[in-house]
Design brief:
Elements lengths: L8 H23 L1 H10 L2 E6 L2 E6 L3 H9 L2 H32 L6 H14 L2 H9 L7 H4 L2 H8 L2 H12 L1 H6 L2 H11 L4 H9 L4 H28 L6 H6 L4 H35 L3
Antiparallel strand pairs: 1-2
Helix pairs in contact: 4-9, 4-11, 4-13, 5-11, 8-9, 11-13, 13-15
């Protein structure tokens, strides 16, 4: 008698998941794994490009010492001000995306057209397009110069935060253009919350403000965290990021070391966000928040 092979549903799901992941894994191994590994190798060498090939001389941790200690201005003078800008841009993008997603989830005429309009900048704008807009002075808010808001900000805040806020305001519209993916994620997350919950809250007499804080926001917390992670990664590769400009130099060893230091800083930043998210989620579950 022939034995019939019986595959459990769990094994089938694992196989299906592996097949879906296979194109990305193969692409990563073929096109990304070697460059990433080779950049780590170059960060410990003094690299020269010669007519006969690549010459690499091992120097150990010298490039890392130069970046972190001997010549810290390469990293700190550019990274710390950019952190200030990121700290302002992330809440703006997340709050704007959440509010727009809630509006676009409502039933009204032309809803699909508005969803398309908010997502179009993600498709049409590239890094070079953004740089060209910024070079032309576009993307700012007209009332800044009309009402002399910049001078008010400079006189009211410390220089570090004043410079960060002015930099964000001068490209405010372009920053909102980067909200298309976040709006899409929030829109999908909003649709995972059952309508019956909202109907029950209305029957109990809850107003829209109470419904938002008690139902919508707790249900959107996982998507808020996902969008924060996406926004952090997106902003840390923003076209105006000064660290990216420092990485793109002809000193391949120094550039590779700087890229790895920057990568570790981003990982630490994401780790802090994960810790905060876990505590917020725990507080919501226990009812202490």
């Amino acid at each position: 008698m022939k034995r019939k092979l019986r595959v459990s549903a769990r094994v089938m799901r694992n196989i299906e998941g592996s097949l879906f992941m296979a194109p990305w894994i193969i692409g990563f191994l073929l096109f990304m794994a070697f460059p990433i590994g080779y950049s780590l190798y170059m960060s410990f060498h003094r690299v020269r490009i010669l007519a006969t090939g690549i010459e690499a001389h091992y120097i150990g941790w010298d490039w890392y010492d130069a970046i972190l200690f001997e010549n810290g201005s390469v990293l700190y003078d550019h990274l710390i001000p950019f952190f200030g800008q990121v700290g302002i841009m992330i809440p703006i993008i997340i709050i704007f995306s959440l509010l727009i997603a809630i509006l676009l989830n409502q039933k009204f005429r032309g809803r699909m057209a508005f969803r398309t309009i908010f997502f179009l900048p993600v498709i049409l704008t590239t890094g070079q397009v953004i740089l060209e807009f910024i070079a032309q002075g576009e993307g700012g808010l007209d009332f800044l110069s009309r009402y002399n808001v910049n001078a008010l900000v400079v006189s009211s805040l410390p220089q570090f935060w004043a410079d960060a806020i002015i930099s964000v305001l001068e490209s405010f519209i372009l920053i909102l253009w980067y909200s298309g993916v976040q709006i899409l994620i929030f829109l999908a997350g909003r649709q995972t919350i059952s309508h019956s919950i909202y109907e029950a809250s209305r029957i109990d007499g809850a107003n829209p403000w109470e419904t938002f804080w008690k139902i919508t926001l707790p249900g959107m917390i996982p998507f808020i965290f996902l969008n924060i992670v996406y926004t952090v990664v997106d902003l840390f590769t923003f076209p105006t990021n000064p660290i990216i400009e420092q990485v793109n130099t002809k000193n391949y060893g120094l550039s590779s070391a700087l890229a790895w230091v920057y990568f570790i800083i981003v990982l630490v930043f994401l780790g802090i966000l994960l810790l905060v998210f876990s505590r917020v989620t725990r507080s919501y579950r226990t009812g202490t928040l």
